[in-house]
């Protein structure tokens, strides 16, 4: 089974968190689901002893897995798609706090026009020179950069529920909230044909605001959630020797389809 470190962070929290706090909560919930994301353009700064330059206004996209039952529902592949997992508890009937992971994927688009400024001093590199805001057609011989396993946002949030409709076991609610946390991407970076880096690494932080519509029947619920947020990656690993670093910041818009269960605790 493929389990990544951000998911283990959540499970660690569940195992070792003081369960006495949960006993005071009105109810506990957990959900799983999938996401799609859009990203704003960003400027990426690369720095090492042999280079120091910026690439301006790079566009990126997400990378959803092609649908198959085994990929999205098979236990061995459950962490391959872009997913969201979260556990939370209600302090009151309307206020809750939670912790979870948003496993997004981020790919810088190839064959796009960008502007480069700075210097490259790598020996035998065709790109060795000083650049003064010059046009560059980006391709894989210069840079391949992805956060595809993934752009992992481990975060906590606070949520406020607004009752819209209740009849028997059927409950419809609007949810608003804000959150923040740390970024632990596994970044696949190949820069100037150097040996690539592909390791989990604490690279920065993020914050988000969101709204959702939640339909619950008895304990089971389905939820459509929209998120907007900001991600700052100030310490991205670039090469296997960990000598090179990259940094970037960008906004994102995320759509989530989520399935979960909510149950009461205590008496």
| Tally of discrete structural domains | 1
Report the sheet-strand fraction. over 45%
Give the termini distance in whole angstroms: 37 Å
Helical run tally: 3
- Average pLDDT: 90
Shape: elongated
Which segments are poorly predicted (pLDDT under 50) over 5 or more consecutive residues?
Answer: 13-23
Order of helices and strands: HHEEEEHEEEEEEEEEE
List the strand order in the largest sheet: 1-5-6-9-10-12-13-14
Proportion of residues in helical segments: under 10%
Largest sheet: 8 strands, antiparallel, barrel
Structural class: mainly beta
Q: Determine Rg (CA atoms, Å).
A: 21 Å
Strands, count: 14
How would you explain this protein's 3D organization?
By secondary structure, this protein is mainly beta. The chain has one domain. It contains three helices and 14 strands. The protein has helices spanning 5-16, 19-23, 69-73, and strands at 27-39, 42-48, 51-58, 60-61, 83-90, 95-108, 113-120, 129-137, 143-167, 170-183, 187-191, 204-217, 220-237, 245-264. The protein has an eight-stranded antiparallel β-barrel. The radius of gyration is 21 Å and the shape is elongated. It starts with a helix and ends with a strand. The model is unreliable at 13-23 (pLDDT under 50).
């Amino acid at each position: 089974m493929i389990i990544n470190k951000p998911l283990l962070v959540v499970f660690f929290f569940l195992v070792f968190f003081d369960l006495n706090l949960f006993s005071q909560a009105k109810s506990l919930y957990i959900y799983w689901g999938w996401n799609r994301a859009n990203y704003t353009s960003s400027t990426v700064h690369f720095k090492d002893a042999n280079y120091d330059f910026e690439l301006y206004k790079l566009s990126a996209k997400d990378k959803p897995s092609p649908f198959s039952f085994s990929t999205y529902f098979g236990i061995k592949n459950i962490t391959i798609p872009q997913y969201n997992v979260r556990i939370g508890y209600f302090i009151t009937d309307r206020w809750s706090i939670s912790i979870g992971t948003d496993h997004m994927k981020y790919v810088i688009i190839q064959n796009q026009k960008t502007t480069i400024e700075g210097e490259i001093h790598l020996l035998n590199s065709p790109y060795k020179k000083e650049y003064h805001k010059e046009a560059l057609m980006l391709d894989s011989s210069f840079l391949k950069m992805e956060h595809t396993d993934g752009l992992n946002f481990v975060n906590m949030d606070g949520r406020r529920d607004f009752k819209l409709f209740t009849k028997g076991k059927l409950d419809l609610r609007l949810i608003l909230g804000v959150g923040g946390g740390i970024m632990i991407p596994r970044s696949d970076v190949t820069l100037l044909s150097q040996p690539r880096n592909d390791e989990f690494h604490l690279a920065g932080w993020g914050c988000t605001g969101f709204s959702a519509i939640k339909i619950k029947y008895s304990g089971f619920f389905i939820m459509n959630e929209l998120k907007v947020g900001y991600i700052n990656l100030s310490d991205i690993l670039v090469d296997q020797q960990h000598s090179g670093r990259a940094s970037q910041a960008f906004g994102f818009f995320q759509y989530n389809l989520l399935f979960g269960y909510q149950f009461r605790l205590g008496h």
